[in-house]
Write a structure and sequence with these properties.
Elements (H helix, E strand, L loop, with lengths): L37 E10 L2 E9 L7 E3 L16 E8 L9 E7 L7 H6 L4 E7 L6 E7 L9 E8 L4 E8 L17 E7 L9 E4 L6 E10 L2 E8 L4 E7 L18 E2 L2 E7 L7 E7 L4 E7 L8 E2 L9 E10 H11 L1
Antiparallel strand pairs: 1-2, 1-20, 2-3, 4-5, 5-6, 6-7, 8-9, 9-10, 10-11, 12-13, 13-14, 14-15, 16-17, 17-18, 18-19
The protein binds 2-acetamido-2-deoxy-beta-D-glucopyranose (2 copies).
The site of one 2-acetamido-2-deoxy-beta-D-glucopyranose has 2 residues, from loops.
Length: about 350
């Protein structure tokens, strides 16, 4: 395996602890509006047993109807690490990269060359990164090591631009072995969500815990900004094999609650939640849930994200066997460029 150099900041950055404040969701006004400049959606996924990045484009401005691009062939094939990528996540640039830069990051895992036990004990501790200035030309492939040798694996990285910090918050799932168990043959910690910050997906601060619900295993985090410093997040309980949601009205490090009840779930037997706003209907969001034992992603929707209530959408336009990925709303210029290149 070949890893890019990692520069870990040795000074642990202080985790800001906001004043305890219980969220009052009833008085929270959802400010998210429809955006008439957004005319389509670009989806990036891996397929069934094929660990490459496949692109899909919405049919018109329909958030839950997609067609494959590039005649169904991958757009990105990794050349480093295990030479397999799962869980691709497409990240829109923020700050001075807004509208000028996009990243795709993903898990370094080719399960055809290993098995699920080994993949979690001595799996890759890096994340794949590609970048683009036009959504067409994807360059700069790198495998950036983000955890030290006590980690068993790094799974399902994703990221969100943190306006307050002026950097990308990157997160993923890892479990850890005691330093004395260098072969990772014993019992690990529960799987928890880790995070760090980066400006460029090249150098990362030292990672810290973001979500630790030990002894419950948590993987596959995705975050939806709601406006006004509020967020909804979605994750898989890898112990119960369910996906659930939490909401914070006081920031990414605020107080998170499960709005539909302490043990409320959205669905079971699913993973890889991928969430995005509807371009046309104010306050409506879409959530893809990967039925990993069946036919992959199925769309769900909500017009009240803060309620935690989601219902299954019409699946007639949604392709089968798309696996854990993500969806990016795009405007007419980008849609035309992607369509001209691959449709
Ligand atoms: C779409 O976004 C791109 C990238 O930010 C920008 O260059 C272009 O002008 C936008 N097009 C429209 C129609 O808004
Ligand atoms: C793709 O991007 C790379 C890096 O920015 C650049 O060197 C190359 O010329 C680009 N290729 C095309 C076809 O635009």
């Amino acid at each position: 395996m070949r890893f890019s150099v990692i520069l870990l900041s040795l000074a642990a950055s202080a985790l800001a602890v906001p004043a305890a404040q219980s969220p009052d969701l009833s008085s929270y006004a959802l400010t998210r509006r429809a955006d008439p400049s957004l005319t389509g959606y670009l989806g990036v996924f891996f397929l069934g047993d094929k660990p490459s990045v496949y692109f899909y484009l919405s049919n018109g401005n329909n958030a839950i109807s997609f067609k494959s691009l590039n005649k169904g062939s991958p757009v990105i094939n990794p050349t480093q690490g295990t030479q397999g990528v799962r869980d691709p996540s497409i990240i829109a640039g923020g700050g001075n990269e807004a509208g000028r830069k996009w990243y795709i990051i993903g898990t370094d895992l080719n399960i055809g060359r290993t098995n699920w036990d080994a993949a979690q004990r001595t799996g890759s501790r890096g994340i794949f990164v590609w970048e683009s200035t036009d959504l067409i030309n994807w360059t700069g492939e790198r495998l950036v090591q983000v955890e030290d040798t006590t980690a068993g694996m790094v799974w399902a990285p994703s990221a969100i631009w943190d306006e307050a910090k002026g950097q990308y918050l990157v997160h993923w799932a890892s479990k850890f072995y005691p330093a004395s168990d260098s072969q990772h043959k014993g019992s690990p910690s529960a799987i928890r969500i880790r995070y760090t910050y980066t400006k460029d997906f090249r150098t990362f601060e030292a990672p810290q815990d973001y979500i630790n619900k030990s002894p419950t295993n948590i993987i596959d985090l995705d975050i939806l900004p709601l406006g006004n410093n509020a967020y909804a997040r979605f994750m898989k309980d890898e112990t119960a094999k369910t996906v659930f949601t939490e909401v914070s009205t006081n920031g990414l490090f605020g107080t998170w609650t499960r709005p539909a009840g302490a043990s409320a779930i959205i669905a079971s037997g699913v993973e890889g939640p991928a969430v995005y706003w509807d371009n046309q209907v104010a306050g409506k969001a879409h959530l893809l849930l990967d039925f990993y034992g069946s036919d992959g992603y199925r769309p769900y929707e909500s017009t009240d994200v803060t309620s935690g209530r989601w219902t299954a959408s019409d699946r007639s336009g949604f392709p089968k066997n798309l696996r854990h990925g993500s969806v990016l709303p795009i405007n007419a210029t980008l849609l035309a460029a992607v369509s001209n290149k691959w449709a």
